[in-house]
Amino acid sequence: MTDEQTRKKDPALWTPWGSQQPAKPGEKFAALRRLAKRLRSIRKKKMAKPAVAGN
Description:
Residues 1-28 are annotated as: Disordered. The chain is mostly helical. The chain has helices at residues 3-8, 27-48.
């Protein structure tokens, strides 16, 4: 790829699992919020399970 072609492409961040587009304003916050909701629902499910007595 030539320098000119590289410059015309959208900027991307290199990561070990492939390049990613830089986050737009608010995207990081939205992703963290989705993750927090998912973790909260998992915790609620774990708490709702009945305790098993005896080994």
